Structure formats: structure tokens, C-alpha cells
Amino acid sequence: MDNSKINKIIMENPIVEMDGDEMTRVLWQVIKDELIYPFVELNTEYYDLGLPHRDETDDQVTIDAAHAIKRLRVGVKCATITPNAQRVEEYKLKKMWKSPNGTIRSILDGAVFRAPILTSRISPVVRTWKKPITIARHAYGDVYGGVEHRVTGPGRAELHLSCENGEEIRKTIFDFEGPGVLQCQHNTDKSISSFARSCFEYAISTKQDMWFSTKDTISKQYDQTFKLLFQEIFDREYKLKFDELGINYFYTLIDDAAARVIRSEGGFLWACKNYDGDVMSDLLSAAFGSLAMMTSVLVSPDGDFEYEAAHGTITRHYYRYLKGEKTSSNPVATIFAWSGALRKRGEFDGNKALMAFADRLDFACLKTLDDGIMTGDLAPLCSGGGGGGGSSGGGGDIQTVDYIRFIEAIRDRI
Ligand code: NAP
Ligand code: MG
Questions:
Q1: Which of 90, 313, 330 to mutate to test the pocket of ligand 1 (most atoms within 8 A of CB)?
Q2: Tens of pLDDT along 21-73?
Q3: DSSP states of 217-258 as a string?
Q4: Which CATH number is 1-116+290-360 given?
Q5: Domain residue limits, the chain
Q6: Which ligand has its closest atom nearest to the C-alpha of 144?
Q7: Which residues does a 6 A CB cutoff place in the pocket of ligand 1?
Q8: What does the pLDDT look like over 277-331, one tens digit per residue?
Q9: Is residue 314 left, alpha or beta, with left meaning phi > 0 and alpha meaning psi from -120 to 50?
């Protein structure tokens, strides 16, 4: 293709670009070269979050990138390695650096939203689902910040709070007559309120109904506080905007929500407490098809957006790539992270051409899949498709290709 013939789209303001590790770092470059540079005069503030550079900068680069997102309001991130003992050895690291996603999340004080990318070729396990279900998980407190104790014999367990004003509060939890277990959880109004605002912002941004669920009938203080804070914030700050957009906020019990989700046709945001979100997000991603087709967006309570794929750096493919193999790694979620960030930049700047390009890019990906061209992870999920070079069945002819041919096929369709 002769690029000089195309008038490239101009971006007045940059987005924050965070490069990453392993196979996704390889995909990152190919996506930019083939799908973005030919069409957009790409304007980014680049941060290399690849593990070697995080190590060189004592992880300062991650902190700088997070602050850049607060300033520029939109970021796109490649998957990154969260170091463990084995990675410290492999990369000869100075330290076992923290998870970049955790660092960015704590600086932005945001919540994570995961949504599946649907294609006509792959039917969700649940027949009634026609539209994606986005799940929001509160990423603070509850059982993840809990204190536990293994009770070995008889004794009284008490809840004891020493207030700053001198008040002492004691409640009996249980009189143990023998061994048992004990757990204490906490959360803060500040964190719950931030989570609520991030969710309402995201619902508005994506023009979707929002559901929130807890077990407030049983947990009359703890879960009830979540329910009340969400309702107060909604009524005070968001109800008008929701009414204008014709979208709804709806609270129900977690068990009722689980049942309704299965019978729904999708197309809404489901806000969950920490544990519920942990379990339900894995359940939804499996039921919609594949982790490689899940996008993830971090939204701060101020309405800053960071886009990425939900999957990791696909290490196993990377080692094969290093041996010279062309792997069949699926770039779709990473491409959708790019289109999400470009579209959001376009929205903020009133740049219609950029928004239209983002839509085209998504459409070209979906069209490629519709045409039966896909990476190896998806072929076995297609109804009637068996993968291999052009096997035909109920799913039509499916051509399994490596990531380079797949990205070229997308480029041909932009
Ligand atoms: P992973 O990278 O998500 O990959 C796990 C397996 O899932 C792969 O081996 C592959 O299966 C399949 N898979 C995932 N994404 C795929 C794609 N786009 N295309 C095709 N297949 C895909 O998880 P992991 O192996 O547990 O973690 C690897 C590294 O990623 C770790 O260092 C971890 O710290 C990091 N990680 C980062 C993030 C993030 O930055 N957001 C999230 C999770 C993990 P097959 O091998 O069977 O083909
Ligand atoms: Mg989980």
C-alpha cells in the first residue's frame, strides 16, 4: 500500500503509550506499524514498561506513566510481566518489582472493567447473550485485605474498635467451645465511593445500564453501606445524566443478579464487590469464549481511562517466537485497547475522524473473523469449525493463520 496517498488523521493531543513485555511487545510493534501508522499521525507520550526498563529506572517509569495518564486522561498499555522469584533470576532484576497494574491502579484510584469482544463466529455458552456483559470489580479490601485466625480451642472472639475520640466498642463475635476459624474484613467509605463513581462514569461513557449487587439482607452494616453509598452518589451526582442518556441504575441482591445475568441478553455493566468480581469475571470470560478476546479498562473516579487487553504477555508463545516460529497469538484484545484509547482521545478532543478510525479498526478486526480468518486459539471455539487450513463445517471455512498474516488481513479490511 502506498501510504503517501492517504491523508493521515491528525491528533492534537497525545495519549500515554505504555509498552510491555514478551509476545505482546512483539504484537504491539506490528499493530502500530501495520494498523495505525499508515492511517494516523500517531501522537503518544511513550513509556517503556518492559521489565528491563522498569528495572533500570527502579520502577519510576511506571509511576511516571500513571501520572501522565492523570494529566493526559487517556492511556493504552501493553501486557507486562509481574515479576516473581523466577523472573528475578531470568532478568537479573535488582528487586522483585510490584505489579505495574497494581501501581497504576493505586495512583489512579480506579476500578477495572472487563468486557468480551463478540464475533458472529463464536457463540457464547449462554444462548440468550446477544451483547457483551461488562464486569466491574472493586479492587480494594474485603477478604483480600482480611485478617484471619485459626482458632485452636475454646475462647471468646470479640470485635474491638478503639476510636480516636476515646470511645471503645466491643462486640462478641462468637463463644468458641472448640476449634474453628475467624475472619475480619474491612473497607472504607472513600474506596467504596471512588468505585461507585468509576462505575457510573464508565456506564455513562459506554451508554449502558448499570447493575450493582451485594448481600445487604444478610450483611446489614457492611454490604448495606455499599448499597447506600452507591445510591446516594447516584441520586446526587449521576441521576440526571443517566436520565438524559436513557440508561438505568439498578440495585439487586447478588444471588438475584446472578440468576438475571444468565437470563439476560447482555449489554449492561455489572458492578461487583471484590470477591464477587473475581469469581464472576472469570466465569463470564470463559462463557463468552476466550481470555484472548477480553478487553480491560481502568477508569479513575475523575474519568481518566487506561485501556489494555485482559490477558498476559503470552510467555509460552514468546519462547517459541524466540526460536524463530511465527506463532498464532491473538492480537484482537490489544488492537481493541488501541482503538478504545484512540476513540476516547477523539471524544475528549472532538476529533470525529479519529473516532471514526477507531470504529473502522474494530470493524476490520470483526470482519476478518467473520470471514473465517483467525488465530489458532479461536478456531476450536467456532461453531462447526475445526481449524486447519480451510476446513468447512457449520461455521464455514476457517483459515487458521499466524499473527502476522492475521494483522495483514485486518489491514486489508480497514
Ligand atoms: P497469559 O499471558 O494470559 O497466557 C496464558 C495462556 O493463555 C497462553 O499460554 C495461551 O495459551 C493463552 N493466551 C492468552 N492470551 C492469548 C492470546 N492473545 N493469543 C493466544 N493465546 C493466548 O498468562 P500467563 O502465562 O499466566 O502470564 C504470562 C505473563 O503475563 C506473566 O509474567 C504475568 O505476570 C503476566 N500478566 C500480565 C497481565 C497484564 O499485564 N495485564 C495480566 C496477566 C498476566 P496456549 O499457550 O495454550 O496457546
Ligand atoms: Mg479470578
A1: 313
A2: 999 999 999 999 999 999 999 999 999 999 999 999 999 999 999 999 999 99
A3: TT-TTHHHHHHHHHHHHIIIIIHHHHHHHT--EEEEEHHHHH
A4: 3.40.718.10
A5: 1-116+290-360, 123-141+189-288, 147-184
A6: 2
A7: 79-82, 101, 291-292, 308, 311-316, 329-330, 377
A8: 988 988 998 898 888 999 999 988 888 999 999 999 999 999 999 999 989 999 9
A9: left
